[in-house]
Amino acid sequence: MSIRRGLRVKLRKNIAEIPEYVPGRSVEEVKKAYGLERVVKLASNENPYGCSPKVYDVLQKVIADLKNLHIYPPSNPTDLLEMLSDYTGFEVSRIVIGAGIDGVLENIFRLLIDPGDEVVIPIPSFPYYHTLAAISGAREVRIERQKNFKIHPDLPRYVTDKTKLVIICSPNNPTGNDEDVNTITEVIERASEVGAAVFIDEAYAEFSTQNLLSLAKYENVIVARTFSKAFGLANLRVGYAVMPEWLRKEYMKVSTPFPLSSLAIEGAKAALLDVEHMRWTVGEIVKERERLYSLLNEMGESVKVYPSSANFIYFETVKPASLIAERLARKGVIVRDCSGFIGCSDRAIRVSVGREEENELFVDVLKETLEELEVLDKPRNLEDVS
After folding, report:
1. pLDDT tens digits for 288-328?
2. Which ranges of 174-274 does DSSP label H, i.e. alpha helix?
3. Does domain 15-50+276-377 have CATH number 3.90.1150.10?
């Protein structure tokens, strides 16, 4: 059917200026592009061991008995909230759920941000923060991190009467570092003085020895976590956050009425019934993370690798990240080119920690690629030297 021509609908003026979020390339896309049979995806920080087998058992039963697809899921799933209360140690009256941490943060922006309000974001960090700030018409205050990527100790002085929200990611995506608790506390206390909220994104908390949930004792703090990473449920999109009880009541006014499907709710509940499986996978990933860090560190001056407390590793190479990522994809390994992340260098790459054989393949392919590029850079004959 042809489209009737006429004037295009009028978009909000700031939408045209917002860059489109570009996720990591999929396995199917890379296979098709390069005619490959095997592709390893180490770009999206997924759990390579997957979720608990109990989740599949529960979901199969749910699907078999599902005769009510015409009925909405519960908007306030009491069972899941009570299980999250047990897991986090906070009252149900302080916990909210959403479609991943992204969904929770979208609601926080709806709740707090008017056009022109300031949002403080240490850079580099997760790109979606900038997208949400742009959508809401906020004024971003971007604070460069220290050389070790921890937030700058001067950050509290950038929190002013115009600040509505400060976003802190720990462990930080894409750099993998934990933040200093004392610095975060100083930021929280400064934000409290001016009535600003502090959103702490702990998507990768289970992979770290640090736990920032205790900071939810402050009246202006929201601590968010997810089932996507350590629990291996990225496809179900389940996030949650702990916040003050008074703020939760306001939050519910702006939240999507039915944020999670019944499958997502039951999957999350099943995952919480098998926390031991999650902890086992985390242990395996942490062991591989440390081994992978050592292997990258042994590659000499061609690679600069940074310590990580997450399920990925951030490194920089002597060549542009876009070139390295493309060549690795051609060889069947997908990594995340971070050169487009605000605050990252054009040499920045993030690699998710996979299983041992996947990490071995990545290291071999990276070495091979760097050697090939080094050969290409060398003069081929005496005329090239002169």
Report:
1. 999 999 999 999 999 999 999 999 999 999 999 999 999 99
2. 181-194, 245-254, 262-272
3. yes
